[in-house]
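RECORD TYPE: inverse folding
INPUT: structure tokens
STRUCTURE:
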């Protein structure tokens, strides 16, 4: 897959079983999709092998873009609260997720830090280098997704960690909402080699941020072209630096609760294609 291909980011639709996602995603014109470790572990618990799961995805006409995500890869992430989310994140260790990705023949794993406070670059870089080495043992790439409400909060933070880690298979997930709400800059993006942007996720943002950024992140992101993010400039910059990642789409919005996956996937695809056409046909 390349920049002209659409990739469906599954995170907002994990409540729909993986195999039930495939047909509507493909019907909307997506070429690939991300999958979660939980998707694979649930099907393996039912008796399917990872190879059989990958074959079902391929038979549906789709490519696996990434396994999303590694969330427990630093010492401080192994401690903390005892709520459902924290317990889930602690199961997403680098070892377990990367081994699952290898069984699935996925090309890469996303890496996140959901810590409430910023993580020092030197600590994150040392830990990320170990993640990259483990991924490289299986022929995989690893890419940090920065979140303005997490421990790695901006493109600058993520790139500093990737650069300090010094691993050729290490890179970045660039999510448009995170990029915009973290006040990350296109000027910095222009300085990053395109091959270090391993994944792209498009959506859009409200003009007025909600007081609770987590609530906005998880419930009020908009379809590409509906909000205030300059997605045309973002896409043109990614193209200019030679990014070859497929065009991912990830939209968390409560209004999708009243939609079928087929309708939402079609909306994601239609809006994203319109933005891509504007970015790539207008000088």
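DESIGNED SEQUENCE:
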């Amino acid at each position: 897959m390349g920049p002209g291909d659409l990739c469906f980011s599954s995170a907002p639709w994990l409540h729909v079983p993986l195999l039930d996602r495939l047909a509507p995603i493909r019907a909307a014109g997506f070429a690939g999709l991300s999958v979660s470790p939980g998707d694979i572990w649930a099907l393996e618990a039912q008796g399917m092998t990872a190879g059989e799961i990958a074959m079902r995805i391929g038979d549906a006409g789709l490519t696996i873009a990434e396994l999303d995500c590694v969330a427990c890869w630093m010492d401080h992430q192994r401690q903390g609260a005892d709520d459902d989310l924290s317990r889930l994140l602690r199961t997403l260790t680098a070892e377990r997720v990367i081994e699952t990705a290898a069984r699935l023949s996925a090309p890469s794993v996303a890496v996140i830090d959901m810590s409430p406070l910023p993580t020092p670059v030197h600590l994150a870089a040392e830990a990320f280098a170990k993640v990259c080495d483990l991924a490289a043992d299986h022929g995989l790439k690893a890419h940090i997704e920065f979140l303005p409400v997490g421990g790695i909060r901006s493109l600058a933070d993520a790139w500093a960690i990737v650069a300090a880690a010094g691993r050729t298979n290490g890179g970045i997930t660039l999510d448009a909402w995170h990029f915009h709400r973290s006040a990350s800059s296109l000027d910095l993006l222009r300085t990053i080699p395109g091959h270090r942007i391993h994944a792209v996720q498009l959506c859009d943002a409200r003009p007025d941020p909600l007081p609770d950024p987590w609530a906005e992140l998880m419930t009020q992101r908009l379809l590409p072209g509906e909000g205030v993010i300059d997605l045309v400039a973002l896409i043109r910059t990614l193209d200019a630096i030679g990014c070859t990642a497929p065009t991912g789409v990830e939209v968390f919005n409560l209004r999708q609760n009243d939609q079928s996956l087929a309708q939402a996937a079609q909306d994601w695809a239609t809006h994203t294609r319109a933005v891509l056409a504007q970015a790539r046909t207008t000088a």
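NOTES: The chain has a mean pLDDT of 96.
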